[in-house]
Design goal:
42% of the residues lie in helices and 26% in strands. The protein is globular. This is DegV family protein.
Length: 279
């Protein structure tokens, strides 16, 4: 059985890796006024952060169901099944779009998978699925492994500017005002598919230190892990943090990724995160 792997653009898997592992990507969009841009195709993360400095904060949009249907029907010409891996259904309707489209196509079996997370941790699921598909594993085996990964996957992220969360409806105006006055850098994470506060920490440095402590707690068992540093237009800081983490955790494989346009709309420039999963 030939199985295709699909994910959406919020996994932020670099194009060369998507091509290497034959991962198909369906884009979400950001909308500035009347202009819509498909992230990773029509607007890059770098372009997005420049645009945001000059324009109103955009809105975001999930892929139309018809776009899923078209992709799945094209994949049916070469594949028997599709595993379609998407950002958490608690923050976007993208996963439900894949479910709806899967029920509308007849020539290929679609297995939608709710990662219950986003960004490159979601990308870890897609890469794992693609490697297994390449080895000829059937969809049930791949899904079993993805569900196993869920048990050890974690992601914590710090928001630098609370106004984005407030404008996007993720934080009340009062919370944003008080947080800004106190220079609070909230640590956030996913619980039951939605983003919730984990802890409120006073400074950026302390927030990042706390994330490292959480990683340390998980990896002290001695199991092999891979991790990813995720930044919102802070590449230099991400590289410096990676060097520090590699020195502290020589047995962990660290990557650098980014919060692209759609997720960056809600978190704002300067956000920094760390995600990890057991190998």
């Amino acid at each position: 059985m030939r199985t295709a792997v699909v994910t959406d653009s919020t996994a932020y898997i670099p194009k060369d890796l998507r091509e290497k592992y034959n991962i198909y990507m369906i884009p979400l969009s950001v909308i500035f006024g009347n202009e819509s841009y498909q992230e990773e195709i029509e607007i890059s993360a770098e372009q997005f952060y420049e645009e945001v400095k000059r324009r109103e904060l955009p809105t975001t949009s999930q892929p139309p169901v018809g776009q899923f249907v078209e992709l799945f029907e094209n994949l049916a010409k070469e594949f028997d099944a599709v595993i379609s891996i998407h950002l958490s259904s608690g923050i976007s309707g993208t996963y439900q779009g894949a479910v709806a489209a899967g029920n509308m196509v007849d020539d290929i079996k679609v297995y939608p998978f709710d990662s219950e997370i986003s960004c490159m941790v979601q990308g870890f699921y897609a890469l794992e699925a693609a490697e297994m598909a390449d080895r000829g594993k059937d969809p049930q085996d791949i899904l079993a492994r993805l569900n196993e990964m869920k048990q050890s996957s974690r992601a914590y992220f710090m928001v630098d500017d609370l106004s984005h969360l407030q404008r996007g409806g993720r934080l009340s105006s009062a919370q944003a005002l008080i947080g800004s006055l106190l220079q609070v850098k909230p640590l956030l994470h996913f619980v039951d598919k939605v983003i919730v506060p984990f802890e409120k920490i006073r400074t950026r440095k302390r927030a990042m230190k706390r994330i490292v402590e959480l990683l340390e707690e998980d990896v002290k068992s001695g199991a092999a892990y891979k991790a990813v540093i995720i930044h919102a237009n802070r590449e230099k800081e991400a590289k410096e943090w990676k060097a520090e983490l590699e020195a502290q955790f020589p047995n962990i494989e660290f990557l650098i990724s980014y919060f692209g346009p759609v997720i960056g709309t809600h978190l704002g420039e300067g956000a920094m995160g760390l995600g990890w999963v057991k190998k």
